[in-house]
Amino acid sequence: MIIIGIETSCDETGIGLIKDKTVLANIVASQEDIHSIYGGVVPELASRAHLQRIDNLFKIVIERSKIRIEDIDLIGVTNHPGLKGSLLVGVSFASGVSYRIKKPIYFINHLHAHLAVNFLNEDIEFPALGLVISGGHTSFFYIENYVSFKEIGRTLDDACGETFDKIGRFLGLPFPAGPYIEKQAEKGDERSIKFPIPMLYSNSLDFSFSGLKTAIINYVKKYGKENIPDICASFQKTVGDLISRKIKIALKQYNVKSILLGGGVVVNKYLQKRIKEVIPDNMKLYIPEKNLCLDNGVMVAAMTYFLHKLTPYRTGFGET
Ligand code: KG4
Ligand code: ZN
Question: Is the CB of 10 under 6 A from ligand 1?
């Protein structure tokens, strides 16, 4: 079964190709160069860049995978959530491919895909707890099986990655700031500044980051940004405190056998370490490799594979 996954929900044009659970190609055209001068994603520029790049990317993926277009059995494309104009490019392109080769198309939830990329590894033990930590979302999922995801917590305001990016912009770091904050934090003392841990006395699985963002901005306004490494390390520690606390609460409320992570912030090694510290020894933790944490097409193909296998339905122009 050869599956192509198309991802254009935000600022990365990603196309991935898998044969059953094996990755044959994973190509992402990043738009960092376009949006970095604005310090954030500009939706109109994002959709235009997707449109300019998607054709070529598709050709490269087909060449690298050493297949013919006709060999594709299924097409998967992210259709929500995301920037409407950007999603439209991927969905239109995928529909065109489906029409051309007369194969079914599956419309995929971006957050489910971030977690489903872990399914390519091995047989996961369910039920599982999923945590997506990305630029646009911070959400917990109770995952009953490969195709049943229930959102059990989400951010009430800013997403975690968005907070990294906004604080980074305030500190004068490049966009997206996540990796730069992680680098700066390595040189700093995480106990030097005490920022408030959001929702410290709540047992909810929802998140909140805007208070922490304001606390850091207020700190910098008062004391200046002489010591960026200490600010970054202390911020990262507070995020680590929050996420590890929330995971502990989730594990008390839900009886799960494994934990799956996904989303760009999961690339962060410090946060990975903090998360590992609170996972019980008898529980398996799945962390995708860096290229599969960040937005990509393989994760969309992975979700498509399992949807087709377990709840096959036909839409688009396919015959099966
Ligand atoms: O999953 P993703 O590629 O896109 C969305 O679905 O949002 O995540 C992008 C986010 C950005 O906010 C970026 O700053 C953050 O992931 N990020 C990181 C790191 N690498 C990327 N955040 C913290 N530490 C990192 N090393
Ligand atoms: Zn994403």
Answer: yes
Q: Residue ranges of the domains in the chain? A: 2-116+292-310, 126-287
Spacing, Cα 134 to ligand 1 middle (Å): 5
φ, ψ dihedrals at 40, nearest 5°: 180, 170
Query: Is the Cβ atom of 177 under 6 angstroms away from ligand 1?
Result: yes
Neighbouring-strand partners of residue 312 = none
> 126-287 has which fold?
Nucleotidyltransferase; domain 5 (3.30.420)
Contact 154, 206 (CB under 8 A): yes
* Statement: the pTM of the whole predicted model exceeds 0.70: yes
Ion ligand 2: residues, CB within 5 A, are 134, 295
Pick the CATH number of 2-116+292-310 from 3.60.20.30, 3.40.50.300, 3.30.420.40, 3.40.30.10: 3.30.420.40
- For the stretch 137-148, pLDDT in tens is 999 999 999 999
With CA atoms as reference, report the closest residue to 193 among 139, 235, 248: 235
Which residue's CA is minimally distant from atom 19 of ligand 1?
Answer: 178
Atom of ligand 1 nearest to the CA of 132: 1
Res 320 pLDDT > 50: no
What residues are paired with 14 via a beta bridge? 7, 28
- Ligand 1 binding pocket includes 135 (Cβ within 6 Å): yes
